[in-house]
Amino acid sequence: SKDSPPRPRWSVWPKASKSRTSAMPTRRLLIAGLLLVFASSISVLEERVGIAVLVIDGVVLVLFLLDLWLARRTSLLATRSKSGVLVQGVETSFQLRLRCDRNLCLMLRETLHPAVSKTPLRRTVLIQDGEGQWTYTVTPRNRGTHRMGPLVARIPGPLGLALTQRELLQGEEVRVLPQVRWGGRVGQLLNLA
User: Fold this and answer.
1) The model's pTM
2) Which of 15, 32, 56, 110 is spaced 20 to 30 A from 119 at the CA atom?
3) How much is the pLDDT for 99?
4) Three-state secondary-structure class, residue 24
5) Any bridge partners for residue 138, and if so which?
6) What are 99's strand-pairing partners?
7) Alpha helix locations (H) across the chain?
8) Residue-level pLDDT at 118
9) How many CA atoms lie within 13 A of 146 on its CB side?
């Protein structure tokens, strides 16, 4: 409704249960799994290798779950600069500021409406001393009111075995105005007014 206060443009993790998160293995874990599969094929010839493979499988599984738990517990704060007025065909800059409780390398995806940007923007941002930032520009293609999607981050665990993905900022509506040309007789009259 019109009387309700505007929602803040920042988010702190952990959020309410409405936020979607997912877990995924990293390349490092997949390579370790392939090596264990190779080692298990050797275990057919030697029984002691089979026992060692089972023990290592258990250790890797426990390390993955621990890394996933630590990645999900990472505290992360994100703020996006206010867009102001977007004009069709004119570049507009946005700035994302990120704060975290540890140093890490985040993979970010800014999901934008096709009228605002041709494709979603992706960037790897290094957070050092608890802070990082990403400045990007968009050139709106179509005028009207468009919905910008959420800012999504993939957060690695400290061991590098698990990633967790979460939405840091909710989507918002932006209004793109048509470009006004001030040339010609009409433009001069508008400029005088």
Assistant:
1) 0.70
2) 15
3) 92
4) strand
5) 92
6) 77, 131
7) 27-42, 47-72, 184-192
8) 82
9) 22
